[in-house]
Amino acid sequence: MADNERLIFTINPGGTSTKVGLFRETELVFEKNIRHLPDELNEFDSTFDQHDFRRKIILQILDEEGYSLEDLSAVVGRGGAFKPLESGTYEVNEALVEAIREGSTLQADHPSNLGALLAHGIAMAAGIKPYIVDPVCVDEMIDEARLSGLPSLERTSLSHALNIRMVAYKAAEILGGELSELNLVVLHLGSGISVTAIREGRMIDTSQANDGGPFSPQRVGSLPTTGLVKLCLSGDYTWNDMKVMLLKRGGLLAYTGTDHVGEALDRAAAGDKECDLALRAMAYQITKEAGSMGAALAGKVDAVVITGGIAHNKWMTDRLEQSLEYLGKIIIFPGEEELEALMRGVLRVLDSVEDVKVYR
Questions:
Q1: Closest of 182, 133, 116, 192 to residue 159, by C-alpha
Q2: Distance CA 6, CA 338 (A)
Q3: Over the stretch 20-35, which tens digit does the pLDDT of each residue have?
Q4: Other CB atoms within 10 Å distance of the CB of residue 231
Q5: 3-139+339-358 matches 161-334 in fold
Q6: Every domain of the chain and the residues it spans
Q7: Cα 332 to Cα 118: distance, rounded to the nearest angstrom
Q8: What are the backbone dihedrals phi and psi of residue 182, each rounded to the nearest 5 degrees, phi first?
Q9: pTM above 0.90, yes or no
Q10: How far, in Å, are 21, 199, 261, 285 from residue 335 at the CA level?
């Protein structure tokens, strides 16, 4: 198959959906978002057990679109919460497959962990190579960023690395330089928020979307420590209760009853003071976190990059731009194009722009 006809099949498993896309080089051939009903997923005891169910649907979509496994040049899945890894594109080898199945090195039970397994199984059947790109567990933090203040609670790096690094590459193109030469502060604004300092291409620090940083539409961000401890020890909540409160029912949702920023903006415009305050507070916390990452870069920031679903809201991006323009040029990439990011990571390897990484 000629280089200009290479077909890259991309797979992104999520909590309630599986997104797939087929690219001919950088051109999108088709994209599908397969929704999974709660009753369907409740039949499985674990995320790992969903593998065969999702694989069958993925192959059915490929067939319905008129393509076979023999047509594919590479398969790439979203990388999950594995052990800490450098950024880059990894070939899915038996060591990674076994690590996922065995489970001891996984930092979280998340559907993204299935991406490597799905890519591996489909690629093996097609006789081609499977990959993952910039997994959730990308960890390039400097040593100083790891200390939390309590030795038994080290800061860890789990972030929206896939989209963060893709927009960083795009920003480098706009700025006319190589990513390895630039310092960026990247704000990924979605249901969870990751704010990351990139120094000369390396993600030296990031706000862990589950454990700190600004509150987001669903997550609480940083909390008063002693107050949180009292809440946990009150006897009123189980671990599962706390997990739901902190990661799914916190942030904007807890203050306003909605996790949809657009709806909250409409209500604020109609005079809802609680929505207005919560939105201003979320923007304020994002600004503070971005400023701290700018400080981590010693104020030498080439650009602030704003991305994620919330970046579609002009009220938010205008507010952030006004507050952060002192750091550097503001570049906005609304949405999170993770399938594109997977495709581009594979092409960087196939085109020898960067070396493939090996999971050990």
A1: 192
A2: 19
A3: 999 999 999 999 999 9
A4: 15
A5: yes
A6: 3-139+339-358, 161-334
A7: 32
A8: -115, 155
A9: yes
A10: 16, 23, 13, 20
